[in-house]
Amino acid sequence: MIAHPRHLGKSMVDMETGQRGFMLTGNDDLLEPFVAGQQDFEKTIR
What we know:
By secondary structure, the chain is mostly helical.
């Protein structure tokens, strides 16, 4: 059982936001939420 489903949801939204911003602008700086969200997601899953 996953203990923190809301935290996982937030992490996924952060990843989506960062990816969308990068895809629209090509600005690498906008990938920061993606990277942070990915790290949080992986940490929470473990």
